[in-house]
Amino acid sequence: DIVMTQSPDSLAVSLGERATINCKSSQSVLSSSNNKNYLAWYQQKPGQPPKLLIYWASTRESGVPDRFSGSGSGTDFTLTITSLQAEDVAVYYCQHYYTTPLAFGGGTKVEIK
Amino acid sequence: EVQLVESGGGLVQPGGSLRLSCAASGFTFSDHYMDWVRQAPGKGLEWVCRSRTKASSYTTDCAASVKGRFTISRDDSRDSLYLEMNSLKTEDTAVYYCARGIWPVGANDYWGQGTLVTVSS
Question: Which end of chain A is less packed: N or C, by CB atoms within 10 Å?
């Protein structure tokens, strides 16, 4: 089974500054058949279901602000929020969907400094 | 508008059973893989089970933590997804979300609001 590890557990960033979240998979989630990384990022605010931000490691979901970006390949991935806004306070999760069992990282809580 | 509405949660004693339902609308349900994902109070997300489409022979998979106790099923004629939960344990207490997989195989782009399952004596 593929295990997802996120870091840091929490992060405090000033408004307008950059937030960077890391995610590592225990095995590669890059498919050799289509050259796609089966990696997604979600945002979850209190009392709400998760919201898809990024899929295929770097494709932004429709309607997601362009301050959110994903990068990485193979086993190492990054979610970057440039110019953090107050509404970005949330917990962020990475997920692989390469094969079952799917798995999520432990989450990173982003707060305002 | 895509909508996923879960129902069936509640309080159940350890060892008991419960059946969750997810009613889908606003999209062609039969075209999509569907997942159940749960979240224990104050904890992270945990994938529970997946239901694949007719094109994938309606195969299913579940996490090791629930295998043999939980069964996922779907009724494409009713645009509905189900989770039959038996031999419930206190550690199964969580909000259970129904989530759609991006066609043909992908991340979960739409989620329901969730239904709370509490396993306690």
Answer: C
Q: To the nearest whole angstrom, how far is the Cα of A107 from the nearest Cα of chain B?
A: 6
- Chain B CB contacts of A56 under 8 Å are 106
B116 and A CB contact within 8 Å: no
Q: Indicate the residue of A49, A55, A104 with minimum beta-carbon distance to B106.
A: A55
Residue matched to tokens 């990282």: A105
Report the residue of chain A nearest B61, measured CA to CA.
A100
B92 touches chain A (CB under 8 A): no
Per-residue pLDDT tens listing for chain B (121 residues): 999 999 999 999 999 999 999 999 999 999 999 999 999 999 999 999 999 999 999 999 999 999 999 999 999 999 999 999 999 999 999 999 999 999 877 899 999 999 999 999 9
Sign of the CA dihedral running A99, B38, A53, A93: negative
Q: Tell me which residue of A27, A37, A39, A25 sits closest to A95, measured CA to CA.
A: A39
Inter-chain CB pairs, A–B, below 8 Å:
58
Tokens of B13: 């004693």
Give dist(CA A54, CA A52) in Å, integer. Answer: 6
How high is the pLDDT of residue A30? 97
**Token digits of residue A17:** 């500054």
* Burial classification of residue B107, based on how many CB atoms lie within 10 Å of its CB (0-12 exposed, 13-18 middle, 19 or more buried): buried
Shortest distance between the Cα of A81 and any Cα of chain B, in A, equals: 20
Task: Check A104 against B44: CB less than 8 A apart.
Answer: yes
